[in-house]
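Student: I would love a firmer grasp of how sequence relates to backbone shape in proteins. Thank you; the sequence and its tokens follow:
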Amino acid sequence: MRSALPELTNVWAETFPDLSRPVSPRRTPAPRLLALNDDVAHDVSLDPDVLRTDEGVRFLTGERPAPGATPVAQVYAGHQWGVYKPLLGDGRAALLGERPRHSGGFADVHTKGIGPTSMSRVDGFATVGPMLREYLLGEAMHALGLPTTRALAVVATGAPRRFNGEMLPGAILTRVAASHIRYGSIEYAASLGDPQLLRRLVAHALERHYPGVAAGRYPARAFLDSVVGAAALQTAGWMGVGFVHGVLSTDNVLVSGETIDYGPCAFLDAYDPDAVFSSIDLHGRYAFRRQPEIMRWNLGRLAHALAGVLADDIDDGRAIGDEVVSTFDERYIAAWTGVFRTKLGLDASIDSSTVDRFAAEALSLLAAYRVDFTGFWRDLATAARGDSTAVRGAFPPAAASAVDAWLEGWSALQPDADRLATTNAVYIPRNHIVDDALKAAVAGDLDPVHELVELLRNPYTERHTSLARRLAAPPTTEVPFVTFCGT
């Protein structure tokens, strides 16, 4: 009988065998669907009803290849914690193939937690908590308007795994992305010493992600310039919502500008520019305020990997790459100003220097008094309508004169209250709420996860439920929140 599953293409596997390795996802003893993202399924023309069948669930785990599919583990290198690692690659994941999107272009269909590959550093399996975490965080980022990979599904495998001495239920994540081409993919291709392979990879990435760019005689330069622009927008977006990626190495950054790998990430509660959440970031390399600096550093590694195809002479290629990367600072500042212009409710008639000044003064006040980042920006909508009680109440009495002076100056700029209410979120994935929901899911209760996802998918509209009230308020504890990579 013909499979009800639609076909996948194998463009990556067929075009780049040097950057792929065959993989056979392990069979799961008792797969059970924990979450299915109908919105993502429709975007890549997959029938949710089919995916809910036994055949569909086993497709989501990678065990049941769709017609035309050849699962492969992608090979890449990367700079982790500033140190070059020549071979990283998919140690527990497989690219199943590609699907056309309703919105245009193609998307990778990718599974994570499938068991060992030839590049595994641990056993290759994953557990319920981290996989549902990626689902939650991806949906939140998408709803906040930031480019991101998204979960198509999370499937419990029925095979418990030992993690940190504890037996936990196993799970597989099925993820959709514009592609999985990482900065580290370019680094690995460059390390093979085959300029033609690198040129083909650049041409493929340009066609996939930046088809409108006129590459002309210098496609590698056009590609790098496009990635720099996307990275500037991506990083400014993170800074605008208080997102800390947590492990911003070159193998965890995509050339598309989509956010990937929601492991030791978190959102700010009380504003702290030096916030670090990852349990292994002992020196604050990937702290919140350092993300623009680190992204620029990562782009420098990408540029040097491309040096051999940016010019005939490698030294000239590095100089060209450095020149392109040097534009990141200006582009990031422009993007950051745009983000905070919107967060302040100011229109285009207000000059950029004024926007930057009021944003910087606000952030300084938030940092000095550890005020909730998300709540402050949301409360500006009420303040713009003449009631600044909530904004003032977030600060201690000692800050009253400084806050009043800031509010007076900002109000004189005639901020748009409606814009503020539709662009500053009420709800973000509060770290303690996410943790509570994941603990419940691991214990077998999925209702908190599903309720949380529904709130996060519409973050600008206030709701009146118990979870909504808790999600809108920061925790009162002073105990620092800690995240883990989940491997």
